[in-house]
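debug: dumping io for the single-chain case to check the tokenizer round-trip. Nothing else runs in this session.
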Amino acid sequence: MAIEIVPEWMVNLEDEDIVFIKKFLLASGSLKEIARQYGVTYPTVRLRLDRLIQKIQISEDTGNEPYITLIKRLAVNEKIDFDTAKILTAEYKKTKSEVK
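debug: decoded output
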């Protein structure tokens, strides 16, 4: 069975995220094995998995507007810090409510 349409939650993932998911599945979900393969500690792998989960959750959150989704994605990818993301999101929501 070939996948003809990429699921929405996968569209915004980076290539290295897809490779991580593949390795994770092939290791039967063993974070210890993934840590060994990458040559890092278990907590490092756990953090990477948590960020990947956040990326997927952001893409699944269809209630957000594209701008807010972008801000969340930037924060998860550590392009901006979470405090900045909160400020931008709050200001955007305030501006949107003032327009109505």
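debug: round-trip ok. The radius of gyration is 17 Å.
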